[in-house]
Design brief:
Strand order of the largest sheet: 1-7-4-5-6-3-2
Number of helices: 2
Shape: globular
Number of strands: 7
Order of helices and strands: EEEHEEEHE
C-alpha cells in the first residue's frame, strides 16, 4: 500500500505555539562589554559557547535575516527588544548594547555585565 505523502511545513511556522510557555526560554549571560574596532561606536556582548549552541539547536531554524534571533534583554533596570546575531569569529551569538542602555546602566568597554535574555 503506497504511503501518503506528508504535507510540506511552512518554513516560517514556529517550532512551538507562541502561547506555549515552553516556547520561551530564558538565559542569564555573564559577559564583558566590548567595542567594535571600526569607525562606529557599537558595543557588544557575547553569549557563552554553551548557551549559543543551545539557542542554535532550539531556535536556529526560526532565525531571520543574517541568522538573527529575536530576544528581549534586561541589564540592570533597563530592558529592550533586539536580536542575537551569530558571530563567526567566536562561534557564539552576540548582541549590541545601545547607547541609551550603556548610558542608563553606566556601561563602557571592558565592563562585566549580567544580562537576562528571553528568546521571543
Amino acid at each position: 500500500m503506497p504511503r501518503k505523502p506528508t504535507p510540506p511545513q511552512d518554513r516560517w511556522s514556529p517550532l512551538l505555539p507562541a502561547d506555549d510557555p515552553a516556547a520561551r526560554r530564558d538565559y542569564v549571560v555573564q559577559s564583558t562589554v566590548w567595542r567594535y574596532k571600526g569607525t562606529a561606536a557599537w558595543h557588544f556582548a557575547n553569549l557563552s559557547v554553551e548557551q549559543s549552541a543551545d539557542i542554535k539547536s532550539r531556535y536556529g531554524t526560526t532565525a531571520r535575516g543574517w541568522g538573527s534571533i529575536r530576544v528581549r534583554i534586561r541589564i540592570g533596570k533597563t530592558e529592550w527588544n533586539t536580536s542575537l546575531f551569530p558571530d563567526k569569529k567566536s562561534g557564539t551569538y552576540l548582541f549590541a548594547i545601545k547607547a541609551d542602555v550603556r548610558k542608563a546602566e553606566k556601561l563602557s568597554d571592558g565592563d562585566c555585565i549580567t544580562a537576562h535574555i528571553r528568546v521571543v
